Amino acid sequence: MDKHTPEHPLPEEILKMPRDKTICTYCGVSYLILHEFKLLEDKIKTLENELTSYRGSAEREKKLQDDLLLLSQELEQSKTDGESKAERLKILTSQINEKENELHLLTEELACSKEEVTLTREQEQLFRDKSAEQQEKLTKTLSLLKFLQCEQVIVKSDLNAMLTSWITLKSQLGSQVQDIGKTLSAEVIRLNKNLAEAQGETLSLQNQMKHLQTVSDSFVLTSQELQTSRQMENELKNRCHDLQKLTVETATPRNPCCSQER
Fold first, then answer.
1. Quick one: 64 exposed, middle or buried, by C-beta within 10 A (0-12, 13-18, 19+)?
2. Residue 205 belongs to what H/E stretch?
3. What predicted TM-score, i.e. pTM, was given to this entire model?
4. Which end of the chain is more exposed for a tag (fewer CB within 10 A), N or C?
């Protein structure tokens, strides 16, 4: 059997550790399986030497053969455990690769999260600036509201004073209106009386106007008749004058000279 020589021997403190400290609690295989292989090989070699030395003793040879068989079985079991552990290591390697992929994804997500955190911080800074601006505006608004409240108190005081003055003035105006109403009532009564008298006089004047209109119409008619009479008189005078002239001409004798000339 070839002796296995490791390239990097284990430290002494690890080699001296108890077996229960180097066994996996899940699979039962020792983490120092190569070292155990070496120990088994050393034991096999020792047993072979002992078998050669004590070949004459049948019982010891049988015992050694049994030990050798047992060690061979342990070696096979160790090889089987080694293969199982190698398969386990392969699975663990695959899981490690998956974890590395997950770690890569997590790294990318972390980068995205950092960008989001940066954006969030920028937005937070903007919100802080806006909040400070809003706070300043609110402070100014509060000052303005306090000023308006003071002005409101002054305006209310002025309104109360004006209302008191208005009530007094209203009372005075009411008294004056009542006095004026009484005076106006008396004046209205007097005016109604004067109006009745004026209406009576107007009615009388209307009757007189009607009478005068009748007289005027009769005067106009008489004037027209007189004018017609004057026209007729003038026409008669003209006709009388013409007749007189004609009579004069008829009564005058004719001149003989005039007759001869003719």
1. buried
2. helix 58-251
3. 0.26
4. C
One DSSP character per residue, 36-74 reads HHHHHHHHHHHHHHHHHHTTT-HHHHHHHHHHHHHHHHH
Structure tokens belonging to residue 105: 């994804």
Q: Write out pLDDT tens, residues 133-189.
A: 888 888 888 888 889 889 888 988 888 888 888 888 888 888 888 888 888 888 888
Under DSSP, the state recorded for 19 is G
Separation CA 65–CA 170 (nearest Å):
141
For residue 49, give both structure tokens. 């030497």
The 3-state DSSP class for residue 25 equals coil
Total residue length of the chain: 262
Q: Give the tokens for residue 2.
A: 């070839």
**Residue 125: burial class (beta carbons within 10 Å; 0-12, 13-18, 19+):** exposed
Cα 262 versus chain centre, distance: 135
